[in-house]
Please model this.
Amino acid sequence: MTQPQLAHQTAAGRMYARSLGGLPEVPSITTVIGQQSVDLDGWIGHMAATAVVDDPRLPQAVGSKAQLKTVARHASDAAARYRDQAAARGDRVHDYCEQVGLRALGRPHTMAEARERLAEHGESAYADRFDEWWDLYEVRPLATELTVWNASVGYAGTLDLVATIGGRVCLVDYKTKGTTRDGRVKSLDPKVVMQLVAGLKAEEQLVDAAAGTWAPWEHGEAGLLLGVAVGQTEVVAHQANPQVLPAHWHKFWALRQVWEHSRRAEEAGPALRPIGPPPPTAAPVADGVPTRVVG
Model:
């Protein structure tokens, strides 16, 4: 997957600059959405417990405190390992999807190499299903990995695909998903609607990253916002319900304010500082003799 040229990882999350030589100015769409807290405690615990049960060293470790600690240490970061593996797989699948779009646009591409990387990891089915979806929906790409900017609210992001499908302009976001027990691709997170509507509300689109050249956003009236779940058994496109777009846009706007105020609070300095006890209170004097203070 091509990394957005203008994106930078900062202490405040991923941010975008206006040009290759510029400084980061605004948060990415995904950084803004990330301000919404997600409770993963149950999932993390489940992954750790599963790692212990599946660890082949467990039978020999029973009865040995030292060996059980080794198994426990390995299980403690099971969720992080799964997350990293899923992210790497998502990058490989996204890269293939991008290369398919570039080939259709007649631009230089590495589609064969991207497919080979999937094959090396036993993931060719993702490419096969994506090819079927692409042909079935008769996708006609207009742009891939298009960076957009909204100065009014203050954010930027990179859209996976802008294309015409069925004669309508669509903004498309790919999500690599696993498979359920009944062989269906897993459902999308509703947060994808925020991601899509933020792209729709862009004001500018990148023309030249090196020169920092931008043009007015051409697709603010796109007819369809599609979250596309790419799986090994199928690819399913989901339309963002037009009736809910205002609510999800307002939520995104509010999360953008949370990001701004959180950054200001961090930059303001330490929130707490130690303080010592107050100085001793002087004892009152009666007829020249100090009296005992009862506190």
The first strand starts at residue 7 and ends at 10. The chain has a mean pLDDT of 89. The chain has one domain: 7-266. The domain at 7-266 is CATH 3.90.320 (Lambda Exonuclease; Chain A).
